[in-house]
Amino acid sequence: LFEARIPKMPAPMAEISGKVSIEEGDLSNTITIRTTSQPVEERVYVVPRSLGLLVAEGDLVHTGTQMTQGS
């Protein structure tokens, strides 16, 4: 038997390659990725603090990198 289900808390994946910066808030963390080449692009992800982070401040990530714990 195989059962398919939708994950309750899907882990965000990096949509662009770049450098990570993290801002911690009371209820959530904000992960910002900025490209290191021209033109500069930026993506912002807001994730609950309950999810463990798999990236750290200053990390270089590639497209498709999982940024938090989760499904």
Order of helices and strands: EEEE
Major β-sheet, in short? 4 strands, antiparallel
Number of helices: 0
Strands of the biggest beta sheet: in what spatial order? 3-2-1-4
Estimate the global geometry from the Cα principal axes.
Answer: globular
Q: Summary?
A:
With 71 residues, the chain is mainly β. The protein is built from no helices and four strands.
What does this structure look like?
- Strands 3-2-1-4 form a 4-stranded antiparallel sheet, with no helix packed on it.
- It contains no helices and 4 strands.
- Strand 2 and strand 3 (42-48) form a beta hairpin.
- 0% of the residues lie in helices and 32% in strands.
- The two termini are 20 Å apart.
- The chain is globular and about 50 Å long.
- The protein has strands at residues 18-24, 28-34, 42-48, 60-61.
- With 71 residues, the protein is an all-beta fold.
Task: Fill in the keyword field for this structure.
71 residues, 4-stranded antiparallel sheet, single chain, mainly beta
